[in-house]
Automatic annotation (TrEMBL):
SUPFAM superfamilies: Winged helix' DNA-binding domain. This is Condensin subunit ScpB. GO terms for biological process: cell division; chromosome separation. Keywords: Cell cycle, Cell division, Chromosome partition, Cytoplasm. InterPro entries: ScpB_csome_segregation, WH-like_DNA-bd_sf, WH_DNA-bd_sf. Gene3D superfamilies: Winged helix-like DNA-binding domain superfamily/Winged helix DNA-binding domain. Pfam families: SMC_ScpB.
Length: 188
């Protein structure tokens, strides 16, 4: 069964297609014998509209008219996952600020890569907070209002305490055992 208006049938098939279609695929999907003529007609009909019919590599599709593409361009923020080192460093800065790199390393027990602090600064969560008045004058770091905003905190006082973190299951079981042993409690 062939459609009464071949151009409408081809237009509908292209509109509903998940991907660009070849002439053969359009002919098979619509039953239209002269798909090329229908495509020329559709191109003419859409020439002055917000969308146009285009062909790339033998495949046809509708796309936004080139002169209007700037209207639809959107900036899309790509969420980036923070590494474990980044999360640990951020937590240390939040709970101990102002804190130097050496202090962060002492608490974590490993060296802090420069990129870790750079990532936190780039995210707007950590900022340089001045220099400590000790030999070498190390740079210290503190959280920003952006950190508080991102995590929905009114102030640093709203950070959860150890008991709250443990109750939420956010501490490793090994951390809980270690803290019990250090406090003299029974780990078993």
């Amino acid at each position: 069964m062939t459609p009464d208006d071949p151009a409408r049938a081809v237009e509908a098939a292209l509109f509903a297609a998940e991907a660009p279609m070849t002439v053969d695929a359009l002919a098979q999907a619509t039953g239209v014998a002269d798909v090329s003529a229908a495509l020329v007609r559709i191109q003419h009909d859409y020439a002055d509209r917000g969308i146009t019919l285009v062909e790339f590599g033998g495949r046809w599709r509708f796309q936004t008219a080139a002169d209007l593409a700037h209207i639809l361009r959107r900036e899309r923020e790509e969420p980036r996952r923070l590494s474990r080192a980044g999360v640990e460093t951020l937590a240390i800065v939040a709970y101990h600020e102002p804190v130097s790199r050496a202090e962060i390393e002492a608490i974590r027990g490993v060296a802090v890569a420069k990129g870790t602090l750079d990532t936190l600064i780039e995210a707007g969560w950590v900022r340089p907070a001045g220099r400590r008045e000790v030999p070498g004058r190390p740079l210290t770091y503190a959280t920003t209002p952006g950190f508080l905003d991102h995590f929905g905190l009114a102030s640093r006082r709203d950070l959860p305490g150890l008991d709250e973190l443990r109750a939420a299951g956010l501490l490793d079981p090994l951390d809980a055992i270690t803290s019990e042993v250090e406090s003299g409690g029974d780990a078993a």
